[in-house]
């Protein structure tokens, strides 16, 4: 999606790695490239916490979102997704 002032690109992955191992990998790779950890948010579907979460990183005007499917992995068909965006989140990264 690209609307000039806003955009997002991402994809989903199926993995047998633990969420902690995946987070550690992305943390290491993103921090090497100047990205900063921003926050973690629970993902709630239909009022229920299935253990999914968003892990947000930022760099300048950009946001990276590492999302875990949690207990809905089998239903979704993916373990985690990774996306890069600009203009979608109000994330001032200083």
| Strand percentage | over 45%
The assembly state of the depicted protein chains is single chain
Mean pLDDT: 90
Strand/helix succession: EHEEEHE
Q: State the major sheet.
A: 5 strands, antiparallel
The proportion of residues forming helix, as a percent range, comes to 10-25%
Gyration radius, rounded: 13 Å
Structural class: alpha+beta
End-to-end Cα distance: 26 Å
| Tally of DSSP helical segments | 2
Low-confidence stretches: none
How would you describe this protein?
This protein has 94 residues and is α+β, with helices and mostly antiparallel strands. It has one domain (18-86). Helix content is 19%, strand content 46%. The protein is built from two helices and five strands; from the N terminus they run E-H-E-E-E-H-E.
Question: What is the compact description of this entry?
Answer:
The protein has 94 residues and is of the alpha+beta class.
Which key phrases capture this entry?
single chain; 94 residues; alpha+beta; five-stranded antiparallel beta sheet; 5 strands; globular
